[in-house]
Write a structure and sequence with these properties.
Mean pLDDT: 83
Number of strands: 24
Largest sheet: 5 strands, antiparallel
Radius of gyration: 40 Å
Helix content: under 10%
Structural class: mainly beta
Distance between the termini: 37 Å
Shape: flat
Low-confidence stretches: 1-16
Order of helices and strands: HEEEHEEEEEEEEEEEEEEEEEEEEE
Number of helices: 2
Length: 462
């Protein structure tokens, strides 16, 4: 009970640091994502003071609009941030992520994790093949081009590598059979359409409009004579139906502010307006801007603590009192563990049970504490995190352990006086016996250094 009272005191103590007036962006929800923590449901578009935001301990905040997400719960770790990008572009490197505690007191307000990362292989350059023979001249008259080529395939590059200096193709000037080529004429771009006689409804008719172009892109050659442009130099069409003159829309007044939906801390209300003063007509432009805005309301004082279950305690030893010791034999015993409802107020609502046990949990068991059992070596575990995450020369390790082979006791039994079957759990730390592995009998560990380690952020960085 002393631990529970100390936890309640730490969580309920007011935040009295000089940073209480710091402007922050306040969020109504704080949740974990697959790659890191996230603040959701912002309380308005403008910053508020840290003290006002954290009147509700379930809220979160950011020191910058796109910064790291912090929790308002005092002396509580916030969610883990996202992993940084890998410290190398190919091969093996490292990634780091962190989280912060608010407030931290005399302790370091941040905690870091470091892990290895693997990217595809590093690029290897290839080599050029010999040049191909020169191909024929590209023209039959005038000046043309001879070309030859080679390929980056001797050997081919690997993993995105190139072929070093040089080009894949070479060219040089060549002369066709005739010294000068005739040039045919080509049309230039059409000019803009001429204006109609009216732009809005009321003109009474639909006048025509025209546009023109010139045979000058290029003009036909004179000697030797080139072909003239084919087609007409002028294009005409009637003006399309003229619409009514457009009328732009304008915003109406904002709606009245609704009552604040919360009774403690900060809340948010939404105001709306319509583009109806007047509305756009006949193709006029709509209103610029948003039709809604979020307005912070409050503060209304500190919010009370939220009732929630504390962690389950340890299981009691597996025993069967009327039979004495049941260790290392197929005798069924029983265990129990308990938990407490934290922040519960007299007369207040109880902690939710969700259909499961509330304060006490029981289970049926076999006692194998200190029992000698045959064992097998486990497979290699996954590589662990790099430690220390911010110190010099971090390393990572993996292990194989001698794991006991459990006895073939019945795993489902029925209680005396009941026909309902129950599952039976093995409890206790057995003493497995495995054949020696590289001189070890219980645990074999392999350690490697972490490569290309990223430096930890400076203390003032968020």
């Amino acid at each position: 009970m002393a631990c529970v009272e100390l936890l309640a005191l730490l969580l309920c103590a007011p935040l009295l640091s000089p940073a209480a007036a710091t402007p922050v962006w306040c969020f109504a929800r704080l949740e974990e994502e697959g790659g890191g923590g996230a603040c959701t449901e912002p309380l308005g578009d403008e910053p508020v003071s840290l003290a006002d935001c954290c009147l509700n301990p379930t809220y979160g905040y950011k020191l910058r609009p796109h910064g790291h997400c912090h929790t308002c719960r005092q002396d509580t770790w916030g969610p883990w941030g996202r992993w940084t990008s890998c410290s190398v572009t190919c091969g093996e490197g490292t990634q780091r992520r962190g989280r912060s505690r608010s407030p931290a007191g005399d302790r370091d307000p941040r905690e870091w994790q470091l892990r290895a990362c693997h990217l595809p292989c590093c690029p290897v350059a290839g080599g050029w093949t010999p040049w191909s023979p020169w191909r024929g001249c590209s023209v039959t008259c005038g000046v043309g081009t001879l070309r030859r080529s080679r390929a980056c395939a001797d050997p081919p590059p690997r993993c995105g590598g190139g072929c070093g200096p040089g080009a894949a193709e070479e060219s040089r000037v060549c002369q066709g059979a005739a010294p000068i080529c005739p040039v045919g004429g080509s049309w230039g771009s059409w000019g803009p359409w001429g204006s109609c006689r009216g732009t809005c409804s009321g003109a009474g008719r639909a006048p025509g409009r025209s546009r023109s172009r010139r045979c000058d892109s290029p003009p036909p050659s004179v000697e030797p004579p080139g072909a003239a442009c084919a087609g007409a130099a002028v294009d005409t069409q009637p003006c399309p139906g003229l619409p009514p003159c457009p009328e732009d829309g304008a915003w109406g007044a904002w709606s009245a502010i609704a009552p604040c939906p919360v009774t403690c801390g900060l809340g948010v209300v939404t105001q709306r307006r319509a583009c109806d003063a007047p509305p756009p007509r006949h193709g006029g432009r709509g209103c610029h801007g948003n039709s809604t805005r979020r307005v912070v309301c409050g503060p209304h004082g500190a919010c009370p603590g939220v009732e929630h279950w504390g962690p389950w305690g340890a299981w009691t030893p597996c025993e069967r009192r009327q039979f004495g010791s049941i260790s290392c034999q197929p005798a069924v015993g029983q265990q129990r563990r308990t938990r407490e409802c934290l922040r519960h107020r007299p007369g207040g609502p109880p902690c939710p049970t969700d259909g499961g046990p509330s304060i006490i949990q029981l289970r049926t068991c076999y006692n194998i504490q200190n029992c000698l059992l045959p064992g097998n070596w486990s497979d290699w575990s996954p590589w662990g995190l790099c430690t220390p995450p911010c110190g010099a020369s971090p390393t990572r390790s993996r292990v194989r352990e001698c794991q006991p082979i459990y006895p073939t006791y019945p795993r489902i039994v029925t209680s005396v006086g009941s026909s309902t079957p129950v599952n039976v759990t093995f409890w206790g730390s057995a003493r497995p016996r495995c054949p020696p592995l590289e001189g070890q009998h219980l645990r074999l560990e392999e350690t490697r250094p972490c490569l290309h380690v990223l430096p930890c952020p400076a203390p003032h960085e968020d």
